[in-house]
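User: quick one, sequence for these tokens?
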């Protein structure tokens, strides 16, 4: 289980979409952080649901999520 604080973490949504092959573009600020343990739990939830999430390294998710990243690519 992932504790939340009673609000929607948009980064979780984008990460889960990314695991399934979607992009979603840059994150709207401000946003909460997402940690490795949370990313592992979200990926495992998709595996347990008999889906086939991306097995790319988690760092790939963060490319292009910030405006400063887009200007250098």
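Assistant:
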């Amino acid at each position: 289980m992932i504790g939340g604080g009673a609000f929607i973490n948009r980064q979780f949504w984008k990460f889960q979409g990314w695991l399934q092959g979607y992009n979603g573009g840059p994150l709207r600020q401000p946003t909460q952080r997402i940690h490795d343990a949370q990313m592992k739990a979200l990926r495992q939830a998709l595996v347990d649901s008999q889906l086939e999430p991306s097995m790319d390294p988690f760092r790939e998710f963060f490319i292009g999520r910030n405006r400063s990243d887009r200007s250098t690519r």
